Amino acid sequence: MRDTLRRLLRQRKAAVGGTLLLGFLLVALVGPWFVMDPTELMGQPHQPPSSAHWFGTTGQGQDVLAQTVVGARETLAIGFAVGALVTLVGALVGITAGYLGRRVDDALTLTTNIFLVIPGLPLAIVLGAYLPSGPFRMVVVLTFAGWAWNARVFRAEALSLRGRDFVAAAVVAGESHLRIITRELLPNMASLVASSFIGNTLYAVGAQVGLEFLGLGDVGSVTWGTNLYWAGNDAALLTRSWWIFVPTGICIALVGFSLTLLSSAIDELTNPSLRAPPKAPSAAVVHAVASPEQEAATPGALLSVRELSIEYMTQAGPSRVVDQVSLDIAPGEVFGLAGESGSGKSTLGSALLRLLPSSAAITHGRILFDGTDVTALSPEALRAFRWSRVSMVFQSAMSALNPVLTLGEQFHDTLAAHGGNSRASSYARARELLSMVGLKPELVDAWPHQLSGGMRQRVGIALALALEPRLVVMDEPTTALDVVVQKELLQRVVELKERLGFAVLFITHDLPLLLALADRVGILQAGKLVEVDTAQRLRTDARHPYTRLLLSSFPHLGAADAPTPSPDVLEQATSALKPPLAASPGGRR
Amino acid sequence: MSPPLLEASRLNRSFPVGGFLSHARRKVLTDVSFSLERGEILALVGESGSGKSTLARLLARLDTPDSGDILLGGENVLAREGGAASLAYRGRVQMVFQDPFASLNPVHTVAYHLERSLVRHGRARGVELTRRVHALLESVGLTPAEQLAKRYPHELSGGQRQRVAVARALAVEPDVIIADEPTSMLDVSTRRGVLQLLKGLTRERGIGILFITHDLASARHLADRVLVLYAGSVVETGRTSDVLQAPRHPYTRLLLSAVPDGVDFLRTPLPARVATVPAPPLGCAFAPRCPHADVRCHEALPPFHLPAAEHHVRCHLESSKGVPDDAAVSS
């Protein structure tokens, strides 16, 4: 319901902005034929609104309504012309620089940067003094002063698109540069072109009014800027003749407002992350549906997950990503969770720390950790629980570490949040933890970007162990690493586990790895735990067809291979087993 | 004897590092040579940063080497300049990229991607175009072709997208396909299908495939020959069965021992040291990590040795048989 409302609101943004702007365009186009001559002295100066002059008269006796209406024409014409020109020049320079790169890029970027550091207003004033007067002067001046910033935006976009494989693929297919720019790059920038045009028009209207108000425009023409200039000259403020400048001011504000609305609507339409996230399914039902059998944790288990269901709210309605999953992890055990993308394995892992995104919620079941019901923890209790009892190692160590803090500071942050150690003792502990994971203690003063992928992941593990948790959730910690680095890291994890006694929930798609690492393995398929068994038994005695399919999908190094089904059969089997695409909003590739 | 289908000879590539005024360059490929025959799959294996993808880009002519030659059917392609020569090369050498989510343009349909390749290389036109597009989709196992041709990339699964990418490469009827980790972004259950598809192409059409991967297990299943890259240099090359079952170079052994395979995978120690010194400028790049390295390894680049037919190893210890037998990989 709320989602529909938000979508309606988004539509309304575009609708309100568009209607307003269209109204102004209509007035600018046909309005001048219906009003008096704006330059003619029609009546007494400084007359307040009356039936003869609806908006009153100026300090010289001209009709304010006529001036406002006629002023819209040139103001908007120049605004849109400059908006289009700035977008065109900026896009042309930016895309050429970004796509061709090297020397062309160097030269164009240097030019752009020179234009950027010259302050726009003085440049416009100087140019304005030399060029012949008239509306074209304003267009030239504003385009000259405004294109550079836009070129930067388009260059950045072209650079990021140029690095994309589909551009390289088009080159390999034999496409020409021109065709790649016009058919491969530009269509991908349609939203940028649209929002830039609107943003540039907004800039143009504002800058134009500003220049004209200062008297730097053509004071003989009728535009909103010159209206304000004359209002100032005729001491409208001193004589309290508010009607002279208020209508123009309101028009400028409304045009700005409509353009801003449109630009924001376009941004939201093309950038899904700006859209308000759909609201998560109600979590209030959790305890209402708790059945007696899910109350009981398995005796001796460190973690007991009972009939856990997690749903994401999507545009198409709620989608169940984790479906009635129950599992137990014993103290010191390595439990492996295997599944393909979209199977819900990462969602399940983050749910153990209640780290679900805002669009997801636990709709059923419980998570019992050492007697505590994690699903029922208050926000303060949850803060204390996270990391000190259960911690997590993420797939991407770079995004898990804060790039602007040294390692020592990150350890201090974590340690201080749970008990307020002094900085000196945090650093001492950080050194100890770093050497524990096989890194030099001196790295405590290093920045994340100075480390290799494998070293970062070691830091991630050291951070996860900082508060001596009893369970560490590891979500694909080695997927981005080379096999040699992966093995080094895993051997270290096993060694630390034996020494410190924590349990591990290891999430990965790599089943052969899990079979070597884990004590027990659970196979997750479309949110359901289809098989749980010891690694040893799964290796030889997998029961569920999906487990067998996964096992057969990995080629082995050994000489003898079990006969495998033909590829077509394999793929049909999986596509039938796979959840629909909509069911994997949290899935990672 | 006819020349090999595709041959690379002493390819070098370095990239500038450091700031705007710095002249420092980092070598990514050093004297890489290999050849690829018709109907053959050559696997190029190595860790990230070993130069695999740079080599793929050189061979796809997306980048130019600092020195060295690329020969297609015995003809030096780097010597020929201009649009027509480039188009002719692209009509014979095609590439399948790693990430099928990035290699198809999101604004174009499946049909558009295939039609462009067909039209650009004059393989089909007019009414014939649609028929060829459907035939191509069917040949990579995408049916019903009429429906799939109209779809946009985001409406396809990862495996389907990679099949479209293969179909696009096939559209120009190439002699060589460079496949840069074509399955690493796919779910495991769809990987094997794509690999089988590639293997079928070599058997049915005689296409030569350069298969770039970090996964030794898939290399073993797919490739006729293997080439192992370390820090931009070829360290070992030979028939797949020779290289993977009787590896000679210490780095190949290290790679093999790190493949998760078997119960004892985590219990066997890695046959490598932690590098404490940077790689010697003149010697073997692997020396700092090599458990068997001696003085020679830090002082001079080892030459290639041929322990068996077609088996090349670049290691000093190989010449003096200094590698103890117990270092061999048990799996």
TrEMBL record, chain A:
The chain crosses the membrane at residues 14-35, 76-100, 107-130, 136-154, 242-266. It comes from the Bacteria. Residues 562-589 are annotated as: Disordered. GO terms for biological process: transmembrane transport. It is a peripheral membrane protein; Multi-pass membrane protein. InterPro entries: AAA+_ATPase, ABC_Ni/Peptide_Import, ABC_transporter-like_ATP-bd, ABC_transporter-like_CS, MetI-like, MetI-like_sf, OppC_N, P-loop_NTPase. The keyword Translocase applies. GO terms for molecular function: ATP binding; ATP hydrolysis activity. GO terms for cellular component: plasma membrane. Keywords: ATP-binding, Cell inner membrane, Cell membrane, Membrane, Nucleotide-binding, Translocase, Transmembrane, Transmembrane helix, Transport. SUPFAM superfamilies: MetI-like (SSF161098), P-loop containing nucleoside triphosphate hydrolases (SSF52540). Residues 72-263 form the ABC transmembrane type-1 domain. Residues 305-551 form the ABC transporter domain. It is found in: Cell inner membrane; Cell membrane. Belongs to the ABC transporter superfamily. This is Dipeptide/oligopeptide/nickel ABC transporter permease/ATP-binding protein. It comes from Myxococcus llanfairpwllgwyngyllgogerychwyrndrobwllllantysiliogogogochensis.
TrEMBL record, chain B:
It comes from the Bacteria. This is ABC transporter ATP-binding protein. GO terms for biological process: peptide transport; transmembrane transport. It holds the Pfam family ABC_tran. SMART domains: AAA. Keywords: ATP-binding, Nucleotide-binding, Transport. NCBIfam families: oligo_HPY. Residues 6-256 form the ABC transporter domain. It comes from Myxococcus llanfairpwllgwyngyllgogerychwyrndrobwllllantysiliogogogochensis. CDD domains: ABC_NikE_OppD_transporters. One of its GO terms (molecular function) is ATP binding.
